[in-house]
Amino acid sequence: MHLKHLSLTNFRNFARLDIDLPRRVILLVGNNAQGKTSILEAIYFLASFTSFQTNTDRQMVNFVEAKNSLAVARLVADYQRGRRNHHLEARLILEPTGTNGQRLRKEVLLDGVKKQMNDVIGHFNAVIFVPQMSAIIEDGPDGRRRYLNLALAQAVPAYASVWSDYNQALSQRNALLKALNESAALSLSKGGGSGDQLEVWDEALARLGAQIIQWRIEAVQQIERLAARVHHELTHGREVLRLNYQPAYDPLPPLSMKLTTDTDRSALKADDIRKGFLTRLKEIRSEEIARGVTTIGPHRDELRFLANGIDLGDYGSRGQIRTTLLALKLAEVNWMKERTGEWPVILLDEVMAELDLQRRADLLKYVGESEQVLFTATNEHMFAPEFVEKSEVWKVEDGTVKKD
Amino acid sequence: MLLPEPIQKLINAFERLPGIGPKSASRLAFYLLRAPEDVAQDLSEALNGLKDKIAFCEECFNITEAGHPRCEVCENPKRDSAVICVVEEALDVLALERVGAYNGKYHVLHGVLSPIEGVGPDDIKIKPLIERVARGGVKEIILATNPSMEGDATALYLQQQLRPHKIQVTRLARGLPVGGDLEYADQNTLLRALSGRQEMS
Q1: Residue-number span of the structural domain to which A169 is assigned
Q2: Is there a domain that residue A181 lies in?
Q3: Using a CB-CB distance cutoff of 8 angstroms, which residues of chain B are in contact with residue A172?
Q4: Are residues A97 and A186 in the same domain?
């Protein structure tokens, strides 16, 4: 993957930005709050159509522009995938609704044709690393599910649309559970008819959920293999990293759920997962009606990170978490290359400051194999002189980019 | 300036229609204001006639002219009453009729199951369908609800409800459109087409 040209209009603090990007390492250097991270965010947006930060999609529209009743931010990328050139445009449109509300709408055009976002995700690939991402490991399971979803959506073409279908089935089922719960409380009707209706949503939930679970099992296993290798080198063989996927509906029989065993779910087929999921939903039906909400399924999955058997979310030191995250992201790069045959564009925000010299060298060695890498740093002395020599150094200042 | 009440009322009425926003609504209202008398007259007559002169078939709930208890299809003795095709809307009947290849009867549900919108089995014409089947004489039910999540769920629900009646229940095939290009098919369609592939004989 080679991003050749990036054009931003009203994106964050860039009123307008047009840059040609070479196929090599690019260092974006500048003081804080000049727009370095925003460039990475923009590139990542074109891969995932969401910000790497949660819930801030509307803030990506330039704040001066956003004061207009109709505000538009535009991101355009020209890139080469395989041997073909593509043109991808994303628009973030803030439009007025009602009396004084604003609604964010996103539009995506691939090669000039308007498309569904779910169909375009993964056409342009990028992997991003920002220091705030340690929240993936430390904070709640939401962030980890989001991480899995964003990675999978880029690498598995149908993932995004199956995931949104799953959520639609989930909302329908939850609405029904809630209605059943309320009518049970009023003792209006029970048994027979209502259960039959639940069954059809169970069916949809299990079919879509099983597919998601199977994809996640496969992905976590592959990423774990790659991440463990990188992590092993980064820690000089002192730590062994494990990714422990804990599906809320676990297709494995509970007997094998001992904490220390190697839980291998890789042999499971989507259809077997579906059947098991369906059976489990039937078993807990009355409990779910009582709670009025769907309690199992991929929307409640968990993923834990363990170093030498110790849960990093609970007991990891800052350094351990940083190393793990780096290993995870580098693994994601290789995983995407394995799955799609293309190197994703690698986006690394302020990573150098956090690493010791040895790890800096390790990192540069890893990313050196890929096609295009963007680093941000407050100054270029973070990098070895011979590395700077081989790279393109750009100064980012107050929403403009200058070649050094 | 406030709009005179009759205009505002008309705009509001238009706005309640599907696919019409505030702009189109006012454009339509002002067009009618300026247009010759007979345009508005024709429209109002057509609208008045809609509810008075249209009724639903007692058997299949397809639309029919008032005064006829049963629709054209149900009245037609040449149609095979052993096969019933279940559709969401009366428009779907029209689409299937245009094909001319179907010789059975219909059943219009007038909606699909959607708990979010509060639509349950009792809110659409499911019970009358079961009753029709229970009266006997039906050999096959073709479920032709849309291939959406709600359409699929409704089809599945019907299949369950029909199970005790021991009749053949089929679902319209899904997959690639005829004359369509494989490369332009969206992922979901392709995924379904792949899982629903058939052996060539």
Answers
A1: 142-312
A2: yes
A3: 114-116, 149-150, 153
A4: no
**For a pLDDT cut of 90, what percent of chain B falls above it?**
56
Residue B40: inside a domain: no
Dihedral-angle region of residue A100 (phi above 0 means left; psi in -120 to 50 means alpha; beta otherwise): alpha
What span, in angstroms and rounded, lies between the C-alpha atoms of A244 and A185? Answer: 40
Q: Say what the pLDDT of residue A191 is.
A: 43
Q: Provide the 8-state DSSP code for A205.
A: H
Contact by Cβ (8 Å): B56, B65: no
Test the B interface: residue of A99, A156, A200 with most B CBs within 10 Å: A200
- CA–CA distance, B103 with B85 (Å, rounded to integer): 10
Domain total in chain B: 1
Judge if A118 and A194 occupy the same domain. no
Q: Per the CB < 8 Å rule, is A199 touching B160?
A: yes
The answer to whether the beta carbons of residues A347 and A151 sit under 8 Å apart is: no
From first CA to last CA, the distance across chain A in angstroms is 25
Residue A259 pLDDT class (50, 70, 90 cuts): low
DSSP class of residue A370 equals S
Nearest-by-Cβ selection for A203 from B113, B150, B156: B156
Which region, left, alpha or beta, applies to residue B13 given φ > 0 means left and ψ of -120 to 50 means alpha?
alpha
ipTM associated with this complex? 0.72
Nearest to A35 by CA among A400, A404, A403: A400
CATH of the domain at B128: 3.40.1360.10
Number of domains in chain A: 2
Per-residue pLDDT reduced to its tens digit, B39-86? 989 998 888 888 888 889 999 999 998 888 899 999 999 999 999 999
Q: Do A168 and B149 touch (CB under 8 A)?
A: yes
Six token digits for residue A172: 């329908």
Do the Cβ atoms of B156 and A199 come within 8 Å? yes
Rounded Cα–Cα distance for residues A127 and A332 (Å): 7
C-beta of residue B108 within 8 angstroms of C-beta of residue B125? yes
* CA dihedral (A294, A296, A302, A308) positive or negative: positive
Partners of A96 in beta bridges: A102
Residue-wise pLDDT tens digits, A190-231: 444 467 889 999 999 999 999 999 999 999 999 999 999 999
- Is residue A133, in this structure, part of any structural domain at all? no
pTM: 0.83
Q: Tens of pLDDT along A43-69? A: 999 999 998 886 778 889 998 888 888
Q: Which residues have C-beta within 8 Å of that of residue A356, sequence separation ≥ 6?
A: none
In a domain, B5, yes or no: no
